[in-house]
Specification:
The chain has helices at 13-23, 41-55; strands at residues 2-9, 28-31, 34-39, 61-66. The chain is an alpha+beta fold. The chain has a 4-stranded antiparallel sheet with strand order 2-3-1-4, covered by helices on one side. A hairpin with a 2-residue loop joins strand 2 (28-31) and strand 3.
Length: 92
């Protein structure tokens, strides 16, 4: 299992709402355009393919960042926020 941070930049409201709903299948939104998820390789590849098909050439952008930190070290949060916590048994 890997912790992935997903963010998107889509200017059109209708498309952005559709992408938000699709990306919510990955994990929890921690901000309006930023998600954190804990996922294994096969489901991640499948969902990433779905996003690629939906995004197509509509001018939007989705980025995926793999967290290489152990647990939540390296994450600094100011204000009220949520973060996805990787269970201790799943830390590689």
């Amino acid at each position: 299992m890997t912790k992935i941070v997903i963010m998107y930049d889509i200017s059109d409201d209708r498309r952005r709402t559709k992408r938000f709903k699709l990306l919510k299948r990955f994990g929890e939104p921690v901000q309006l355009s930023l998600f954190e998820t804990i996922i294994s390789a096969a489901p991640f590849a499948e969902r990433r393919g779905e996003v690629a098909r939906v995004i197509g050439s509509d001018g939007g952008q989705v980025r995926y960042y793999e967290s290489r930190q152990t647990g939540d070290r390296g994450i600094v949060i100011f204000g009220q926020a949520r973060t996805t916590v990787l269970p201790a048994g799943d830390i590689a």
